[in-house]
Design a protein that fits this description.
Length: 341
Amino acid sequence: MESLRERLQVQDFTAAQARRRFAERLASWARDPVHGDRWSGEAPDERMVEDEIRQRLADVGAPFWENVPDSHPLNALFREDEDFRSLTRLLLECAPEPQAEVRLDLTEIAQVHFGPRHPVASSARAAQLDRLDRDAPLLVLTEGTTDARLLAAGMEVTHPYLNGFVTFFDFATPGAEGGVAQLAKTVSAFAAAGVANRFVALADNDTESHAGLAKLKSQPLPERCRVLHYPSLPFLRTYPTLGPYTDEPVLTDINGTAGSLEMYLGRDALQGDADRLLPVQWRSWNPRLRRYQGSLIDADKQAVQERFRRKVEAHRAGDATGDEDWSGIRAIIDTIVNAFE
C-alpha cells in the first residue's frame, strides 16, 4: 500500500487534496436536489461517509463495493467521479492497516486472471503521460549529471515503484553545465518558460548551496516548483572533520555545511581504511552565512561514488547482503515524494 500511496503522492494526489476534493464533492451533491434524491433522509456528512469506508475496508476479504445499493452515498459520490485516483488516495488514508495489501480485481472486465507481476497499468500510464499536467512525471533538477544518475540508481533500490513517476533531469548534453549557480539558472528558465511539469530543484545541504540558492528562494516561484536541499541526517550530526584549526579529526554536525550527495550514499560507502569514516575537509569561509564550506577531498569523493555504484550493481545482480546502508538515499527520495505536501 505504501508504494501506491507514494505513486499518488508524486502525482499531487495528497491526503489533504483527496479530503478537500471529497468535501467539495459531498457538499455539491448535498446541495443538488436531483442528485440529493439518490439517498433517503438527511444527506450524510464527511465523517459518516469516512466511517462507512473504514468499516468496509476493515472487512478483510470482502470486495469494497460488495452490497452497496445504488442509492448509497458511496455510489452517488464516487461511481461518477472523473478521476478515481483521488478516491483511491482517500481509501488509503482510511485503511485500518498502513501496510495492507491493495488488490484490484479486473476479472469481470478482462475475463482473465492477471498474475501479480503482470504490467496491467503500463498502457494506462502511457496514456496518462500524453497529458502534460498532473500526469506528467515529477521532474527533479540537481546540481549536475553525477547527482542525477546516482539518485536515479539509488531510487531503483529504495523506491523502484516510482520509476516513470519521478524523473531526474539529465545534464549529459553537449555544453551542459552543473553546480548550484547553473541549478538556479535552470529553475528560473523553467519558471519563465511555463514548463508544465511540477519540478523540484534539489541541491546539496552545504554552505555553498544554501548561499547559492538564497536569492532564488526569496523570489516568488510558480506553485508547480519547489526549491529544496538534501535533508539533515542524524548520522551527520557527529561526523569527523579536518581543519581549519587542527589536523586531528573533530566530530562535528555537518548538516547544512558539508552535506554533498556523497554523504548520503551510505555509511558503508563512506568507510575508508580500517573502517574509519572518510573525513570532511573544511575549506572556504562564507562571511554572509558565517560558516565554512566542507567536503570530502576529490579522491575520496570518487571512491565513495564508486563504492555506491558497486553496491547498486550488487543489488541488481541479487548479490546484496542485506547489510547495505540506504538510509541517506531513502531520506532524499522521501523528501522528493513529499515536496508538495
